[in-house]
Write a structure and sequence with these properties.
Blueprint (H helix, E strand, L loop, with lengths): L1 H11 L4 H19 L2 H26 L12 H4 L4 H11 L23 H13 L3 H25 L4 H13 L12 H16 L3 H12 L5 H17 L8 H29 L4 H14 L9 H9 L4 H17 L2 H4 L3 H17 L6 H4 L7 H4 L5 H23 L10
Protein name: Mannosyltransferase PIG-V
Membrane topology: Multi-pass membrane protein
Subcellular location: Endoplasmic reticulum membrane
Length: 419
């Protein structure tokens, strides 16, 4: 054996200096990674993602021609204020109209009541406090809430997944095809923050602290009724499993209170709009105005918008077939082992919000943005550990950003694909 060992050493030789150096660097990097706090890892991911997204946004802005929101080649801040960012600007500086605007035919037209007050209220307050302009504050607020969401999302995922998988879920959230929404003048990142906090408190069963979070979340983006359904499913689940997971009277009272507050919060904006304008249907009529360009003015009948949309996009029954296939595929995914590992409460939220969209929203290009609150599903997609798989998913996400900005955000003068 000794002779064999001598012969092997003679053939291979001692480790080279370069090999020893590389091995030392690998060990040093592994140790440093393990010693790095979780929040620092998330911060590095977030900053890297914003560098990539900002570079893509600036590339498109440099090629943007004159449009309804800016001149040719706008600055980043001007580019970030496109589309609904202008509606939030109107609300931040002048509030909501007392009277609903109407078309020549007498229908309610597009107006500020379609947008919840949470985000523009924060922006307006900071504009007053700092003296900075709307564009700057709007982007700063969005980025700040996006960073907060990334940090909270790691903590949420780490409740149900290993730390490495939780971090990669954050990577996917930060690099997602619609992640440019995290740094524009929209309410999405603020809503994502309060939604993530709500889900975290729900999984921790901290019901009383959940109450104000649900109220703010519901007045930032429409989500109160969906969260009420998710909370109701949570209460039923806990009651059914109470023998192995005790569900005491205090927890019953607290969780049922969250359900009731969520229902009230879900209807609050409709009631506020009705009180100010004098029309009980002010909010729903305003929302219906946005789909009038596609299918004309319609009544709001729950569970029919997607059927109408399917027939509009693909007439002749093909759209209905595709809609059924999408629902079946989504349902199958929700029962996959990857999604089940996220636990019942996250699944309840995703299913409830998906049902809410199916009930009231008309499918068009904004639907991709409206699907952003199901982002906890990134935790399911993050679970395979192959580095080839993970790199491929990140590259697909970045390609998706480019495609989405080109289709929905960048304006080519023909407005039919709003973000």
């Amino acid at each position: 054996m000794a002779a064999d060992g001598l012969r092997f050493d003679a053939l291979v030789g001692p480790p080279s200096t370069e090999r020893r150096r590389r091995s030392g660097l690998a060990v040093w990097a592994a140790v440093r990674y393990r010693l790095t706090p979780w929040w620092a890892r998330v911060l590095v991911v977030f900053v890297a993602s914003r560098v990539v997204t900002t570079a893509i946004m600036l590339w498109f802005a440099s090629r943007q021609q004159y449009n309804a929101w800016s001149g040719a080649h706008p600055s980043y801040l001007e580019f970030a204020k496109f589309w609904d960012g202008n509606w939030y600007y109107i609300i931040a500086v002048s509030g909501y109209p007392d009277e609903l605007p109407v078309t020549a035919e007498g229908h309610v037209s597009e107006n500020a009541w379609a947008f919840m007050p949470g985000y523009p209220a924060v922006v307006r307050g900071l504009m007053f406090a700092t003296g900075l302009d709307y564009r700057t504050i709007a982007v700063v607020v969005s980025v700040a809430f996006a960073l907060g969401t990334a940090l909270l999302f790691y903590r949420l995922m780490n409740l149900v997944l290993p730390s490495g998988t939780a971090l990669f879920a954050v990577v996917l959230y930060c690099f997602a095809p619609l992640s440019p929404m995290l740094q524009v003048a929209y309410a999405e990142s603020m809503h994502a923050f309060f939604l993530t906090l709500a889900l975290y408190l729900l999984l921790k069963r901290d019901y009383w602290r959940l109450l104000p979070v649900v109220v703010v979340m519901s007045l930032t983006r429409p989500s109160g009724l969906a969260f009420a359904l998710a909370m109701g499913l949570h209460v039923v689940h806990r009651w059914v499993t109470r023998e192995r997971d005790p569900f005491g009277r205090r927890e019953v009272a607290a969780s049922v209170t969250v359900v009731l507050v969520s229902v009230i919060s879900g209807f609050a904006w409709l009631l506020i709009a009705a009180a100010v304008t004098g029309s009980w249907t002010a909010y729903t009529d305003t929302e219906l105005a946005w789909r009038a360009a596609y299918i004309g003015y319609q009544e709001l009948i729950p569970l029919t918008p997607w059927i109408l949309g399917a027939n509009w996009w693909l007439p002749g029954g093909l759209g209905i077939v595709l809609l059924v296939l999408l629902v079946v595929a989504f349902t199958a995914f929700m029962f996959s082992p990857w999604v089940k590992r996220l636990g019942p409460d996250i699944r309840y939220w995703v299913a409830s919000y998906a049902l809410y969209l199916l009930a009231v929203f008309f499918p068009q290009s904004s639907t991709f943005r409206l699907l952003m609150p199901v982002f906890p599903l990134w935790g399911a997609i993050a679970q395979p550990r192959s580095w080839i798989y993970r790199l491929a998913v990140v590259l697909l996400c970045i390609a998706g950003q480019i495609g989405w900005i080109h289709i929905a955000w960048w304006s080519d003068g023909y407005d039919w694909t709003p973000p």
